[in-house]
Backbone:
């Protein structure tokens, strides 16, 4: 098993970042604990913090979280202008998974974050341009992703940015990364999309920091080839999975026969009591605007017994009101439903499929003959069909990066060509606010 740390290649070539970019610094944020960002790494030279990094693969063997680097792999196309700015360090000892040490997931090639989406940068770097972090505290700051054109324009005098870079930061400055944070992670929803690379000063107004774009195919493919990372769960075409893969999945049954899907959305510490994952329904809350016409298609079921958190039963997070997923982003649908329009799931196996979010205009057009869709709905599926959800999956979750954005609602047959599945849009304020008011989450 390979045990690896991902960092900036610029740091391999120069001991001081200021030798390359005299004004490069990183700053801002609040103090956090390592438990908040357990993938964070501090690389030391002669016992002193040198730069940041992140754990991307490890084996569960040794105790502690300190290890020595034995190999360093620099991207073959790296240049001193900051392009292809990535390196992988192999550690001498295997790291122990615990609350202070966890690997971070990486995006698929070309999997991007929407503009203005907030992302979390963390590190042990300076607190300002000439303010060192003498206490060595770990800090973090949330910064928004910038549109690539704006980023290129900002650094036009330095040659702009390449397709292997992107920017994140506030136009007014005051928050960002600083010297000593270089090589560290930029994360959203448990996935590392960026590596702190270069910029102009620390949190400087009008000059956002520049990050290595991990999802860029030349970067992501090199990581995969170099580290032999195991592919993350990407189930396509309705493959069989286990409940441990989607522990939030629910099968609602009548007389022991599967009726429809669902998801666990709320459990508190006081709820963690009974053994097992089977229980009976005690009450049902239906959205007050639901009129059996597909709109406002959401309900909440109260359970008779409290559920036990374990590897087979976990709640799923919900998005904030109006928090959306980009068009074409892949999302995971799961359920115990039929395998096709006239093909029942006689074995009762749990299956999952990844489907892309469809633009609302295209979705409305597809179902124009049915009156289109409302603001409480969205579509996900492939134009060519053949992959999607079916009868019996209704009510089940549609998830991306650990957040449930959709509820399987309706559609035209099962994964029909030109007819993507229609899902209840959980982030729609009338839906999300009702959930919050009903169960206080």
Residues:
């Amino acid at each position: 098993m390979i045990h690896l740390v991902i960092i900036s290649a610029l740091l391999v070539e120069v001991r001081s970042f200021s030798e390359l970019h005299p004004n490069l610094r990183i700053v801002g944020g609040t103090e956090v604990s390592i438990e908040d960002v357990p993938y964070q790494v501090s690389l030391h030279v002669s016992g002193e913090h040198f730069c940041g990094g992140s754990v991307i693969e490890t084996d569960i063997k040794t105790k502690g979280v300190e290890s020595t680097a034995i190999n360093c792999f620099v991207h073959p196309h790296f240049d001193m202008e900051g392009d292809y700015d990535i390196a992988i360090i192999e550690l001498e000892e295997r790291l122990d998974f615990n609350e202070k040490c966890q690997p971070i997931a990486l995006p698929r090639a070309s999997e991007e974050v929407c503009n203005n989406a907030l992302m979390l940068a963390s590190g042990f770097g300076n607190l300002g341009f000439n303010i060192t972090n003498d206490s060595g505290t770990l800090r973090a700051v949330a910064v928004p992703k910038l549109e690539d054109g704006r980023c290129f324009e900002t650094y036009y005098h330095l040659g702009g940015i390449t397709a292997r870079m992107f920017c994140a930061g506030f136009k007014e400055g005051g928050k960002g990364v600083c010297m000593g944070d270089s090589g560290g992670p930029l994360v959203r929803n448990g996935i590392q999309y960026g590596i702190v690379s270069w910029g102009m000063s620390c949190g400087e107004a009008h000059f956002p920091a520049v990050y290595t774009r991990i999802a860029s195919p030349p970067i992501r493919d090199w990581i995969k080839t170099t580290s032999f990372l195991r592919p993350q769960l990407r189930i396509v075409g309705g493959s069989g999975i286990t409940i441990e893969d989607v522990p939030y999945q629910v099968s609602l049954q009548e007389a022991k026969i599967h009726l429809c899907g669902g998801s666990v959305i709320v459990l508190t510490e006081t709820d963690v009591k009974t053994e097992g994952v089977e229980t009976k329904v005690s009450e049902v809350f239906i959205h007050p605007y639901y009129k059996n016409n597909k709109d406002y298609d959401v309900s909440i079921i109260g359970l008779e017994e409290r559920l036990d958190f374990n590897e087979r039963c976990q709640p799923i997070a919900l998005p904030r009101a109006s928090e959306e997923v980009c068009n074409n982003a892949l999302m995971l649908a799961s359920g115990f439903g039929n395998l096709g329009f006239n093909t029942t799931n006689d074995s009762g196996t749990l299956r999952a499929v990844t489907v892309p979010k469809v633009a609302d205009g295209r979705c409305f057009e597809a179902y124009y003959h049915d009156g289109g869709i409302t603001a409480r709905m969205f579509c996900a599926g492939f134009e060519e069909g053949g992959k999607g959800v079916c009868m019996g999956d209704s009510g089940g979750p549609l998830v991306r990066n650990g957040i449930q954005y959709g509820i399987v609602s309706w559609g035209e047959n099962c994964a029909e060509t030109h007819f993507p599945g229609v899902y209840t849009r959980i982030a729609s304020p009338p839906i999300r606010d009702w959930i919050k008011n009903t169960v206080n989450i």
